Amino acid sequence: MRRSINADFEDRLARIDRIHAAGGAFEASGALGRAYFDSHRPKERRRFPWRAVAMLLLGMLLFKGAILAQVGPETYARRVEVLWQGSALEQAGAWVLQADAPTRFIAAQLRALLF
Questions:
Q1: Which residues form the domain of 18?
Q2: Structural domain count, the chain
Q3: pTM for this structure?
């Protein structure tokens, strides 16, 4: 009796291995498989990463504020003025790095915390 139970089990395992090797899935006959549901699911569009852009802009503001707090407003203004005198790329950098109101606010807060 013990031999026939093991033989039946081994036969079932061999059948499952053959089905698996042939690309079959382990789904009950008549059941709707995963392929059915995947084909009816609407494809999700890739969205624009607004959160990443916002984090990048916030990081740039913090960086500008930290530089302004570290070197002081006069030195910072002089360095930005030197950039304005340079090439088109340097002028674009000067436009990005100019000390605007949020940058000055962040610099004041950092200066109060650090110095």
A1: 2-40
A2: 2
A3: 0.60
